[in-house]
Amino acid sequence: MSDWYSQDKKELTKIIKSYLTNKKSIKNIHGIIVPHAGYIYSGEIAGKAYSLLKDKIYKNIIVFGSSHYASYYGIASLEEIKTPFGKINIQENKLRKLKYEHSIDNQIPFLQYLNIKKILPIVVGDITIDQAKEFAKEFAKEFNKQDTLFIFSTDLSHFLKYKECIKKDNETIKTIENLDLEHFSKVDACGRNALKILFTLCKENKWKPKLIEYKNSGDTTKDKSSVVGYASFWF
Question: What are the E-state strand segments in the chain?
């Protein structure tokens, strides 16, 4: 169980419903990029992206998050994910299995609220850009892109002063929007390894990420001495 969001089912339902406030309608959405901090800090930003998925049906849901707890090369999956809404089914795969990863776990209540019952969780370890290209090709080959939703989980810069955070995050956002692999070193995000797959996947399919909302923890706590940045996108 996670301590990043309420463990009370009724309370969690109420909280998620309050975050799904984006009334914008976009016809073709291939994926979203969302933060994964505690819901009180980043839930609203994530909710703006998940709002776009209402009434949409996908055959496959693949959730990518970078590893925070285990160090390894390549990609892995999770053996089980359980939230106050119950267990979510994990698509069968032959990847090594990890017990927990909050960058993925924090997305599950949103998906369950939207009545999504099965996912493929991909926890990305250390990979190069060339390896990311290979993984992107494998996923594109295995999953029909018209039937698949790709979710990439990342927060942005960590523990900078408020104005410095905004400046640094604006550089990262611009790099993501432009899929600028030449300047990938400017990306300051804990999900950098997962984003390597995002960049190559989007380039391969001519998809372009578009910013939905950006904030940082200082906007919530009003403590601007050391903040973390959060953004959501769709593509």
Answer: 31-34, 60-66, 75-78, 82-83, 86-87, 89-90, 97-98, 118-124, 148-153, 158-160, 210-216, 227-234
DSSP string covering 134-188: HHHHHHHHHS-TTSEEEEEE----EEE-HHHHHHHHHHHHHHHHTT-GGGGGG--
Q: Which amino acid is at 213?
A: E
Query: Is the pLDDT confidence value at 3 over 90?
Result: no
Q: How far apart are the first and last CA of the chain?
A: 30
Per residue in 54-109, pLDDT tens? Answer: 989 999 999 999 999 999 999 999 999 999 999 999 999 999 999 999 999 999 99
Cα angle vertex 39, ends 167, 105, to 5°?
105
pLDDT confidence bin for 46, thresholds 50/70/90: very high
Tabulate helix, strand, coil % of the chain (nearest 5): 40, 25, 35
For the chain, which domains are there? 9-20+30-234 (3.40.830.10)
Q: Which of 53, 67, 81 is nearest to 232 (CA)?
A: 53
| Tokens 């390597």, located at residue | 196
Q: What is the mean pLDDT of residues 160-171?
A: 97
Quick check: pTM over 0.85? yes
Q: Rounded to an integer, what distance in angstroms lies between the CA atom of residue 48 and that of residue 40?
A: 14
Q: Which tokens belong to 118?
A: 């099965």
